[in-house]
Amino acid sequence: MPASQLFEIVVPDRIVPASKQISSKRQFSLYGIYLGLTVVLADYLFEWRGPKFKRWQGSGLYENIGYIIGAVAICLVLGFIIGGASDFAKGRSRRKSVLDPSTFQEPEIIPEIPLDPNRRNNFIARYWRGEYSLGISYWVFGFVGNIAVAVLTVGIVMLFQTDNEYEPRAIFGSLISVWLLIIAFVVWQVTGVWRSANRLIARRQVVGKRAGWATVAKVVVVLGLLNSISTFFKSGLPQLIESSRMAFLDDPDIPAYSIRVMRNGTEAEIAGGFKYGLTDDFSKVLKASRQIKVVHLDSTGGRVGEAFKLNNVLKAQGVDTYVSNGCYSACTIAFAAGRNRFIRKGAVLGFHAPAFPGMTKSELQDAALDQKRLFIDAGFNRKFVDKALSTPSSEMWMPSADLMAAADVITGLSDGTEFAVSGFGGDLSKEGMANALAKALPLLQTLKDRFPKHYDRVISTYYDDYIAGKTEAEAIVDARGKLVSIIATLRTLADDAVLVDLATVLADEYAALGDKSATLCYKFASGIGSEDNITAELPIALVNRDNEINRRIVETARNRQDVSATDAKDLWKKLLAPLAAKGVREEQLKLLLSDTAAAPSRYGEYCRASETFYREIARLQQREAAILMRFIFAEK
Question: Would you call 133 helix, strand, or coil by DSSP?
């Protein structure tokens, strides 16, 4: 290299007449306009904000014009700011930064690496090639660049905002745009600093000097790059994957939802997962059935954003909310919208903190604040809300009904009789309901295994009432009526031991009902109250015994020899003495065996006689008790 070139301080750039120079502010302002128009065109093609460009009448016209102007204006302003920074950097590029450590060294002539005068001369290209001093590249571009990225990020988020509140395509578009911006900036920034540092090192090596500051700068930007890569894989990539599944794959991990209108259009059920489109579909149902006053919820949860949308719709409609089975996670947000909030006895509400892949702890805490405000505004006790949202998203807090009532989470408990049947999840098929019922009541599974036709009769009755939107009480009574008639035909075919145990169960049931009401006991014992769900008045332990004894009747039913009248008559005579000893006289036996209804004044007498009658039968020898039970049920 010639000596004259070696000690040249500055290699002149290509000289351009001042009259032909274009300022960076003007140039990047034009880039901004192009970018704004590109964003608007992409929104038109991909409908990030929903189908808003399809609405050009009325307020839609002004909204779209305002959006186009706003998008172009934001990009124009950002371009102008970047261009201004470029012009400033050009003016400073020939001057040494006061932050460069070499500023404080004694002046010395350091050779300059020749630059190619035929390349582009804008600040982005010059920074990329490392043509600025290390101080300018590291400090000025680092500081201004981070501010520019922050401003652009806010602009991107604003551009993708929609009135739809929860729009997966807009979320995905916003996330991928922000991360592409960040990745591009990090690569540009690291490359510029690295090359600028290499130039400084090369220049100082020529004169036998070290460039410690340049080495430190390279180490720092490499550490920053590694941190950015780590952040992307921990936060960015999981967010992009999850949002893409939401936007393009219909959230495959969340169950499909279903909406059903019941009870002549006065009630509706939302079952299944909370995913995009649920609120829009339910809003259409509300427009078609404006008389809906109660909304049933049966869901394991889903997207919090969709739950917030549904909450707003339910509050605007002024409906009551009701849960007959379970409402978990995001579903509780929709439940909180109810003007009155009911759960069925035994139903469950499940609470925990929100979660989304890639979100940091602080971001999740911010998301929980919105949910906390919603619950408190709905009237929930503050301490209850704190407990609910402090539960990790991997767990589920399921408070008792008493605790929820005390915390004003629910306004009442229901036995289901005043609401339509619900709570079978998203599977509204007859088979799905049958499986759910058989799981809840083993008696039905046994009936299905032994007598499929009888089983189908019971299930069909309940399913038809379910589809018709009848109340749970009505459906239970209808299905129970079918089941009771089937069990009645099988009693005479059950094993001897089962019939003896049945006598004891009947006696205990009459005693329990008699303690509550002679009328209830009489209706149950005589059979005239078969249209009422009287078993609901029994203790749960006794109901379970009743179901189990009926299951055993079905399980052991076999063709058996008819009971002879002679054997039955002899056993009647044998039973009369112990009955008389317990106060059951011939007059009361006639009351039990009469086909006519008893006078209300004799209900108590009928109930006590029935209890004693079956207790004494159970005390007979097993074979004798079974013969007498078969005879009685055959006569009935």
Answer: coil
